[in-house]
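Q: What structure does this chain adopt?
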Amino acid sequence: MMDILAYLCPKFQKKTMRTGKELITYSKLFSNENRSRSWFEFLITVALAIICIIISFSTSLPLIIRIGSSILCGLTYVRLFVIYHDYEHRAILQNSALAHASMILVGIYLLAPETIWSRTHEHHHNNNSKLTMSGIGSYPTVSKTYYLRLSKKQKTLYLINRHPLTILLGYFTLFIFWLNLKSFFQSPAKHIDSLIALVLHATLSSATVYFFGWPTYFIACFFPFFLAYAIGAYLFYCRHNFPGAKFKENHDWTYSNAALTSTSHMLMSPVMNWFTGNIGYHHVHHLNSRIPFYRLKEALATMPELHQVATTSWHPADVYRCLRLKLWDDEHQNMITLNQLSTAY
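A:
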């Protein structure tokens, strides 16, 4: 009853600030999808991607138009990925054979096959804000005390995994290597779809070079994926690696606190919110991953408890501050840079 009153009456809501399970319970009011809208959002995104691909391949068009279409295609891939990500969270289009078949194809095309993506991403949600060296479904994050005990080789590998170039080259590092090559070679029987994704990707790329030439390959095939995964890799990084992020372990960890203190709200323009599928409202998504991406803003508007989280943006200064963070300082309870570590020791 209190949740219903809070939903209907914002004034009442402000007087009864919720925490923990109360927030999660209230968030379920927004976890029902509009099936027609889900299909519309998916189909219009696929249609836009196809149009962009066709224009990018059209050698009769001016180069500037093809390049613009290539950029638009990359941004559309980001949105398509978020929709696929929502489907894997069971937030949209469930119990539909057509949707299931479509999303399997989307996952393979986007180099994020269902078997590896679903398992690692669920692990990420259930372990968000916990210190880890493995980085399953996330970027590795360890405390400065733990880091100082590592061997030189382990330190190097840790820093490579968090390096800005690793994020910029997410197309190669995260998607081709980590989600596909590594998963297939570690467990071929479980991840045959990773092999299919790699073979399909290589076949389409080779065919484009053979029939259309290298320039068209770079414009129509390579750059959209490169751009999409550079953006996607950074979005995934800065959601949980930002000034003010908190990390907890064992009995101190709770799901709701991880959403509110270890997940940022990224401020974006309406255009970028559309292309990123509202992923900027990531703390809302982590509170309840069953909320469809098109209802995240609606949920945030009625939950003042979620307005106090740390924010980031696309501003170069914010990007720089996020990328510099490397270690969790368990003494001062904040993320620090390598320079701060050197100063302390």
